[in-house]
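Intended use. Records like the one below are meant for learning the mapping from a protein sequence to its folded structure. Do not use them to infer anything beyond what is encoded.
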Amino acid sequence: MGKGGSLSEGVVKKILLSYSYVAIWIFLSFTVIVYNKYILDKKMYNWPFPISLTMIHMSFCSTLAFLLIKVFKVVEPVSMSREVFLSSVVPIGALYSLSLWLSNSAYIYLSVSFIQMLKALMPVAVYSIGVLFKKEGFKTDTMVNMLSISFGVAIAAYGEARFDTWGVMLQLGAVAFEATRLVMIQILLTSKGITLNPITSLYYVAPCCFVFLLVPWIFVELPVLRETSSFHFDFFVFGTNSLCAFALNLAVFLLVGKTSALTMNVAGVVKDWLLIAFSWSVIKDTVTPINLFGYGLAFLGVAYYNHSKLQALKAKEAQKKSAQADEEAGRLLEEREGDGIGKKSESQGGSDFLCSLGCIGVLVYVC
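Structure written out for the chain above:
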């Protein structure tokens, strides 16, 4: 009874911790999105320079990561050869910079609510690019689900009151680059056994993003900034905004590391609904019934996709535990045979042990 109680207490603690990680990530993601919209929107703070804003974020993150690794030595650096850095980290940094640039630019032209609806296409993009690079197997039912999500987003776009073609192209481009980056992480880093924690990820990737953004910034935004003599850098606004962006990067890795990428996807759906409600009630963006109907269809498709992923993960985990139990039972039987125990008792003992392992496996699986 005591063991059961302690087990329940441990499970409750894990559940509370998981919800805490989810809540922290939703809060920070929500804050960064609304804060970026506030800075970039011409009707609010009126500083429509998305490349500059992203570069401020990257320089801030790079500096903090450098201090934590090289100066204060809070985190151990990851040994990485120049060849691996150039062939793996640099391409990921390039894709990340393009994703951030385009997604921040979209806030100038589109409402927060509509951007969240367009982001529902992320599973479609990730799956399609995964199939293209042979990281995902093509399945007809999955593709049908992807088409249903796309159809829902198309309806939401049709009902958008402030539809802007350029803004939609920017956001779709951001989704495509971000999906490619996620697939490339699997191909270029995970497959090579390279794992980066939150600080080391920023330490390597953020400077790459800054350098890649520097080129378009010189030609696109620098000339305009030079002409804007009335602008004075607000350290409080950009400092707190950058701090939130840094904290969000840590929260993403914390959430995925302590729970799973699937948990983040589910939490992302909750966050999107909260942002749509906030955009409609506080920012006063127009959300039409057609918007909601289309996004509702897309939401159902995303929910089904996440559910399918969860079932696949559970089946894989159960199969792994079953294989481990069989292997352990076989090893025990071999040891007993070596000790000269009779075949009948060996068979009975092996059967009892396998049964007990199966019960333990079920307990662990259910918890």
